[in-house]
Every structure is written in C-alpha cells, then in structure tokens.
Predict the structure.
Amino acid sequence: MKTTVHRAETRGHADHGWLDTNHTFSFASYHNPERMNFGMLRVLNDDWVEGGMGFGAHPHDNMEIVSIPLSGSLEHKDNTGVAEVIQTNDVQIMSAGTGVVHSEYNHSKEDKVNFLQIWVFPKERNIDPRYDQKTFDPAGRVNKLQTVVSPEKSNGALWINQDAYFSLGTLKQGFETEYSLHGSSHGVYAFVIDGEVEIGGEKLKKRDGAGFWETDSLNITASDNAELLLIEVPMSGRA
C-alpha cells in the first residue's frame, strides 16, 4: 500500500475577508507541484463564507463538482434555471459538462456557512450539464460508512460521471471497520472533518487528509469521536 499524508496546517490558505479557505490541492493562488491532485480527485477546498457573501456567477466545464455543507446553508443558482439551497446533511453534485455558469452564496445574512467544495475529473467529457442534490439521514452513518455519491444509479446515492464513491461516517470512539475498494486501480482519499481516526496505520486529526492506493482495503479505527469523509477515485484515466 502506498500512502500520502497532508496535515491540516500544511494546506494552502487564503483569507479574502468574505471568504476564509483552505486548499488541500493546488487552487487559485496556491500552487504546489506536489499537490496537484490525487488520482481523479482534483480539488478539496474547506470554505468559510461570511453571511450574505459568496461566489458570483462564474463558468465551469468538464468537471464533477460536489458540495457538502458542514454548517449553515448554501444557495446555488445556475444558467440552466436551477435555484436551490443546500444545508447540513445535504450533498449537492453538478456535472459541468459542456459548460455551466453558476453562483454560490451564503443563504444566511448573519451566520457563516462552512462547506467542502470538491472537484473530480469526469469519466466522459462534454456531457449535458446536470444538477442534483439529496438530503441524507445522519442516523445512516453512525458507526457505518454511508455512501452519498456513486457511479451506480440504484443505491440511493447521488450519481457521478466518474467511477468514484463518496462516503460519510460518524464514528464513535473505539469503533473499527474496514473499507473495501471497488477497483484495483482505485485509491481512497480520507479527510477528517472532526475528531481523530487511524486509517491504514496513519493517525489523522481534524482536517488532516491522507491518500491510500495499491491496496484492496483499509482498516479504520476511531481514536476519538470522529466525522470522516472518504473519496474513492480511479488513480488514472482522465477523459
């Protein structure tokens, strides 16, 4: 098994006043040639947006974009006519495909919103732009891994245009489990939202991330109460 570890404090950071953000991988003004991506995972941003503020209309194409609110609510609008609000326990996905223009604003005028913005390279390029979101029952991830994004259309998760799987877990201290990868050419990027876990022999704390590949499975132990995100992606094969 191969491993790469990214401690929380080593992430790229920018404070724009209205936006306080940390970048696990190179993004905007943060460029680290050793952190361009993890397989098909291109971006993992940890964004805090002030009340009433946000990202104005801007374009994307040929990228799968997933947003996961950790606290607060996020308002999405795009040029296909979609206008939605996502909040804690929701997951949003957008296939930019041939091109889409969208905006993201804090739905609250007073409280900050904290969300993870994640980009995955698509499996097929130039598909029609697509938007979807879903609320997931938090009870469904207590001491288990709840699949929230999947290339399979029949398992209750949001569909993604890539052989990628996103799983969330709320793990109680001492809980142990094993994650089995879906493909031999896949890797898993683990991001600790809160608490402490040990994965593949690596001890990870809040906002630490680690990638694992060339393995069939991962042993996971909650060293403390923890919130965990797993992102399984092919390690090669960009469309």
Q: What stands out?
A: The domain at 2-123+135-234 is CATH 2.60.120.10 (Jelly Rolls). Residues 89 and 136 are 6 Å apart (CA to CA). The first strand starts at residue 2 and ends at 6. The radius of gyration is 17 Å.
